[in-house]
Write a structure and sequence with these properties.
The chain is α/β, with parallel strands linked by helices and 411 residues long. The chain has 14 helices and 17 strands. It folds into two domains: 137 residues, Aspartate Aminotransferase, domain 1; 255 residues, Aspartate Aminotransferase, domain 2 (3-Layer(aba) Sandwich). The longest helix is centred in the N-terminal third of the chain and has 21 residues. 4'-deoxy-4'-aminopyridoxal-5'-phosphate binds next to helix 4.
Length: 411
Amino acid sequence: MTTTLQPLDVAAIRKDFPLLSRTLNGKPVIYLDSAVSGQMPLAVIERMSHYEREEHTNVHRGVSTLSQEATDRFEEAREKVRAFLGAASTREIVWTRGATEALNLVAQSFGRMVVQAGDEILLSAMEHHANIVPWQMLAQEKGATIKVIPMNDAGELILESLDELITERTRILGVTHVSNVLGTVNPVKEITARAHARGVSVVVDGAQAVPHLAVDVRDLDADFYAFSGHKLSGPTGIGALYGKLAHLEAMPPWQGGGSMIRSVSWEKTTYMPAPAKFEAGTPPIAAAIGLGAALDYVQALGLDRIAAHEHELLAYATERMAVIPGLRILGNAKDKASVLSFVVEGIHPHDLGSILDSEGVVVRAGHHCAQPVMTRFHIPATTRASFAYFNTREEVDILVSAVMKAIELFK
Ligand code: PMP
């Protein structure tokens, strides 16, 4: 039986985002940069503001009613993340500053524990620097080697290479669920199954996936899954790491301080169980509560409806952009999410980005913190439009006109 999804009421949704009504350089703002950072709906902004005005204090700090209330709200937000990711327990959800910190946590705690001299860490060719550099730092410290899963010209991982790339020495495989440059949705479940069959743990960078697809970490069976709040209609400064409980329990802490200890003496300090063991110091409480509100918001819209809307926009934008003379789209994977990267012959992506900016169109131009992807495609940078549930076909039309205008200017 096929069920027809009720389309999103985009006009109503847009009223939740004050920024979408402002102008930029005298033009209505066209926000096509959600892969850099998503906009927050009023419900999130107001929830955080309410916390700061009426509820603000510290969490996990003794008996005051106010602190207990803040702790409850903070832990409720953790439960929302657990449910959102389909994790078995809130003990598997560690608050972090974002995906970057989550991936550094895995490298510095789990990685240090399992990687020894001569071991190998396998990363996909389309990783963001956040899932490369922490592993390079670890590899350098331990005398380990980084190996790379290559991709084809369409921007799809060449999975046939996995059997050969995984060796007796491979300890960890790191892969992004969705590429921030190419939009490729990687078959994480299959990759995980193949890595596990060879005894390799899998770390997934979900920063670009969670805003666009329903994720079920138990179904994916990944060992770790990292994401950031600000790409998911939430605030900056908060993100989360999902880790299988057995791993989190076995892993040493990585930062020390208050909240992560059970007892401290000069002779011996003992630690709290996971996840507190990984959460030293005062966390960003308003941001965590705000992220909880963001999850409520996107779940009320429905991730399946969000995905359908964004897919439709991506298909429309691809169709319109592909016929522009001299324009090349990077990333033509069969399974793609919400990102359209392109280069235009004779115009540097930064110049193109500036012209689009003068037209009120916000896109990202640069290497997107994925320089090895640029090297793979022999380009210095791309211009990237990224779509969210509040974007419209009319906005795609304005993007296309602005690109055409840039081409005219550079003729
Ligand atoms: N991974 C991917 C795929 C990303 O797109 C980003 C953000 N550009 C990150 C990791 C890092 O996220 P954050 O800066 O929020 O830690």
